[in-house]
Amino acid sequence: MTDKINKLLEQINQLSATNIEELEALRIRFLSKKGEITRLFTEFRELSPEEKREVGKKLNELKDKVQEKINELKISFESSSSEESDMDLTRTSYPVPLGTRHPLSIVKNEICDIFARLGFSIAEGPEVEDDWHVFSSLNFPEDHPARDMQDTFFIQTNPDILLRTHTSSVQTRVMEKTEPPIRIICPGRVYRNEAISYRSLCCFHQVEALYIDKDVSFTDLKQALLFFAKELFGADTKIRLRPSFFPFTEPSAEMDISCNLCGGKGCPFCKYTGWVEILGCGMVDPNVLESCGIDSRIYSGYALGMGIERVTNLRYQVKDIRMFYENDLRFLKQFESAY
Ligand code: DAH
To answer: Are 315 and 232 in contact, with CB atoms under 8 Å apart?
Structure first.
């Protein structure tokens, strides 16, 4: 019997199984009710007490070894079988084709980034606004044409509530709550009741900038404008300020940049003037400061606002602003940017 046990002990190391069926066959061969080891235990019962003492130890050792081997095979078989399955968790994923940023987002981010370098931080406000924030606080007289139903989308049930027509409303929201110094840039969607054409839409985007502090002068505004124009349109860009009117600034100006298509020589794009208009600006009217609770004897400031569609048109020479909203991938994929 000892010989039989020794022989089996030698065989154990060579046992192998490649799938669950083979493994089960091994278990049946050795450990089932009719298996070889069970049979040895039956034989063991017939032995004399001295023989039992010697063989018993070996027989238990054999049983343990077989059990151990089967467990070992089971583990290796399980881990190798999971490698063979369809799922390979180590594999890199399929490349997901990346979209491109929308040209309006690219330009908006670029504008915000330029002003961030001058210390401005982003502020946002609601698109559904009240009359106070869009008009009254910004020094619009009661009968100003911009309040006319033709320009503004009012909420039918409450004429005090409207869709903001410009991001200047964010100026008021921030000034009401913040002690100067204030340096904010406010990008956002605005709405006007315009007929849709290649140059106007009823929903478009603006960016507003506002700087309020002690001793802010027109010179500061001009310097910021020049920096901005050169950063966005290139170092050769020149700027020109023309006197203008906005209720919320005094004095007010419109800024032109040298035409970035012809470099200022004159072309159909700039109507042979060499200049294209890009934004409105001015020194914040003292009435606006006062209506927001800021003492205009201590503080002054400048503000500027521009249409993002317009700037994007100039930047990329897009002729029809409706293209920005048509979701045509052939158009949208042309705009690559770091932003
Ligand atoms: N809010 C003006 C508009 O929508 C743009 C504008 C002009 C903003 C002059 C300003 C500014 O801050 O100073 O046409």
So the answer is: yes
User: Which of 260, 133, 257, 254 is CA-nearest to residue 186?
Assistant: 133
Ligand 1 touching residue 308 (CB < 6 A): no
pLDDT at residue 84 in the model: 60
Count CB atoms within 10 A of the CB of residue 91: 7
Question: Ligand 1 centre from 244 Cα, in Å?
Answer: 11
Return the residue whose CA atom lies nearest to atom 3 of ligand 1.
Answer: 166
Do 162 and 131 form a contact (C-beta atoms < 8 A)? yes
166 close to ligand 1 (CB < 6 Angstrom): yes
Residue 300 CB less than 6 A away from ligand 1: no
Please give the single-letter amino acid code of residue 287: N
Query: CB neighbours (10 Å) of residue 53?
Result: 10
Amino acid at 48: S
pLDDT of 7 reads 87
Specify the pLDDT at position 189: 98
pTM summary value: 0.72
Query: Would you say the CB of residue 188 lies under 6 angstroms from ligand 1?
Result: no
Q: What's residue 145's pLDDT?
A: 79
* Among candidate residues 284, 290, 300, the one with its CA nearest the CA of residue 249: 284
Residue from 202, 207, 246 to probe ligand 1 pocket by mutation (most atoms less than 8 Å from CB): 246
Nearest protein Cα to ligand 1, atom 2: 305
Omega cis (within 30) before 251: yes
pLDDT along the chain (339 residues), means of 10: 86 82 88 89 88 87 89 77 68 80 96 97 97 95 76 90 96 97 98 91 97 98 98 95 96 94 84 94 98 97 97 89 93 83
Q: Locate all alpha helices (DSSP H) within the chain, ordered by sequence.
A: 2-12, 20-31, 36-44, 49-84, 103-117, 131-134, 168-177, 218-233, 286-291, 308-316, 329-332
Residue 182, CB half-sphere, CA atoms under 13 Å: how many? 29
